Amino acid sequence: MCGIGRRVGIPGAPARRLYDRVVRLLLDATAIPADRGGVGRYVDALLPALADLGLDLVVACQQRDAAATSALVPSAEIVPVPAPIDRRPVRLAWEQVGLPRLVRATRSELLHSPHYTTPRWVGVPTVVTIHDATFFSHPDLHSPVKARFFRSAIRTAVRRATGIVVPSRATLDEVKRYAGGADEQFQVAYHGVDIAAFHPVDDAERGRVRSSLGLGDGRYVGFLGTLEPRKNVPTLIRAWVRAVQGLADPAALVLAGGPGWDGGVDPAIDAVPPGLRLVRPGYLPFADLAGFLGGAEVLAYPSLGEGFGLPVLEAMACGAAVLTTRELSLPEVGGDAVAYCGTDEASIAAALSALLADGGRRAELSAAGIRRAAEFTWEAAAAAHLAAYRSALARAR
Length: 397
Hints:
The protein is an alpha/beta fold. It folds into two domains: about 25-190 and about 375-395, 3-Layer(aba) Sandwich (Rossmann fold), CATH 3.40.50; about 205-375, Rossmann fold (3-Layer(aba) Sandwich), CATH 3.40.50. The chain is about 40% helix and about 15% strand. The chain is built from 15 helices and 13 strands. α7 crosses α10 and α8 (about 235-245) packs across α13 (about 345-355). The longest helix has 19 residues, at about 380-395. It is globular and about 65 Å long.
């Protein structure tokens, strides 16, 4: 197994076998929501990269995802599971009873559960992905029910899984601090970025996306993510008002992403002074993301804590000047290629004002972000998962 916390580089030759033969791996994608947010993008990008390594893949998925998953990985065996497991309690019940049966029926030798939970008894080595541990470190940023559920799920995964995949060193440290676990259980596998989808686009494409948002030729500060408490969106709104109020040509603020459950967002929007433009388009079409991210004067992501921070990486790949915080994993992603601020209104406002006023600094961050994003590939992520699978099989044997 590779060293704890090290990213695994792309191997010089395809790693087609875990040992002396191909091992049959079942990946349970049934927890992936219909809207392909961060976890959905992780699974959708990881599967083809694993297939390229020559793994014998079986993928369990919701019926709604069967055709798309088959198109992603034509070499895999796709197993659509019963439609009634859409609701979380039903899916979790199926996971405990139906998934072990599926492992046996498909003769799988290894199970990867990519979203926190896994069967308590399955009969083969299991690898679980734990995406973040803010349910322990920042419980106030989640609903009480959700925080309790995921704390229990993480503790159970650490206690029962043969191997644990985490997307950053910060998440590794947090999981071990709050849930324990042995060093040899863990593998850090940074996410990658799909440069076919996330890359700098031309002026025409940026203009098309601006027009679709109703902004015409106007400048804007962008945000991408679910409007949940840990994204710190109400504070961003107030900081943006401070940064642009009084300017002759104030940049708009565009809050793209799911509506979430942050009760502070609507009051913050209602308090925006007349003359400033705030746009809340909801989910953007996937084809518009590169134009949206690359067209922003600044992509602001003042999160209070992330397990990885995929929007930051994707924005960097699109050439955006990114402003984010140093909380948890975000410096591992941004490095020296992003601008940093605190999580409070004054700090965000000061950093945002400085970036909006300095085109040269934004150009430097754009170029640095493109270079750094190129270091994060799904091929490297798949190689790190392969190391986790090898370690799990070795420990089980």
